[in-house]
Amino acid sequence: MKIATYNVNGVNGRLNVLLRWLEEAAPDIVCLQELKAPQDNFPLKAINDAGYNAIWHGQKQWNGVAILARNMEIEEITRTLPGDEEDIQSRYIEALINGIVIACIYLPNGNPAPGPKFEYKLKWFDRLADRAETLLNLKVPVILIGDYNVMPTELDVYKPEKWVKDALFRPEVRKAFSTIVSQGWTDAIRTLYPNETIYTFWDYFRNAYERNAGLRIDHFLLSPQIAAILRSGGVDRHVRGWEKTSDHAPVWIEIDKK
């Protein structure tokens, strides 16, 4: 089974790119982030025509997450991250697909730091840690998937010395990510490629993609039940080079079928 994550940076504006990639890569489950579309403007027909069922949580102009599944039912669990009833940002959706709990995550950017946006990011991380621990204690297959807006180590960022004050690389954020992993999760891509430079995001500016000046901020965290059947994974880097594409590339893993 192939499971992917893709920050599309506007699902309607980049729909042709998404559909082209879906046809080429043929993932079984896909988590999308940064839809930038209100709930009633998700391109469901086009997604269905491509062979996928979908659930989504949209928001006007910003944010937005979705889960797609090919030839499988999606049983929605929740579309809010527990812990703050006043948080209306659409950054989390969770579902059960083929016996696997899939949590699609779009963690806040947090810049400028310090400041209110950074504090919101850290609180969101705390809530995610609580939810992650709850899911882990269920002793069922779970994958926490998406754009975490954090580079866990210096290996995950081009010229790390230039990012030390950025909200994506500040020690508080890296510690928050590490705290979740230490609960018993497996960072899939880093486990598969422990010493390699792998990026999932390249800025539109300063020829970042051409220079491979990237970041690894899109992650899969696997519960032990999934980590035991992890087979392979990678980044569809070439998609970042397509016309009118997102600044992220799709990331994927393959697990043994249940």
Automatic annotation (TrEMBL):
<dbReference type="InterPro" id="IPR020847">
    <property type="entry name" value="AP_endonuclease_F1_BS"/>
</dbReference>
<comment type="similarity">
    <text>Belongs to the DNA repair enzymes AP/ExoA family.</text>
</comment>
<dbReference type="InterPro" id="IPR004808">
    <property type="entry name" value="AP_endonuc_1"/>
</dbReference>
<dbReference type="InterPro" id="IPR036691">
    <property type="entry name" value="Endo/exonu/phosph_ase_sf"/>
</dbReference>
<dbReference type="Pfam" id="PF03372">
    <property type="entry name" value="Exo_endo_phos"/>
</dbReference>
<keyword id="KW-0378">Hydrolase</keyword>
<keyword id="KW-0460">Magnesium</keyword>
<protein>
    <submittedName>
        <fullName>Exodeoxyribonuclease III</fullName>
        <ecNumber>3.1.11.2</ecNumber>
    </submittedName>
</protein>
<dbReference type="GO" id="GO:0008311">
    <property type="term" value="F:double-stranded DNA 3'-5' DNA exonuclease activity"/>
</dbReference>
<feature type="domain" description="Endonuclease/exonuclease/phosphatase">
    <location>
        <begin position="4"/>
        <end position="248"/>
    </location>
</feature>
<dbReference type="InterPro" id="IPR020848">
    <property type="entry name" value="AP_endonuclease_F1_CS"/>
</dbReference>
<keyword id="KW-0479">Metal-binding</keyword>
<dbReference type="InterPro" id="IPR005135">
    <property type="entry name" value="Endo/exonuclease/phosphatase"/>
</dbReference>
<dbReference type="InterPro" id="IPR037493">
    <property type="entry name" value="ExoIII-like"/>
</dbReference>
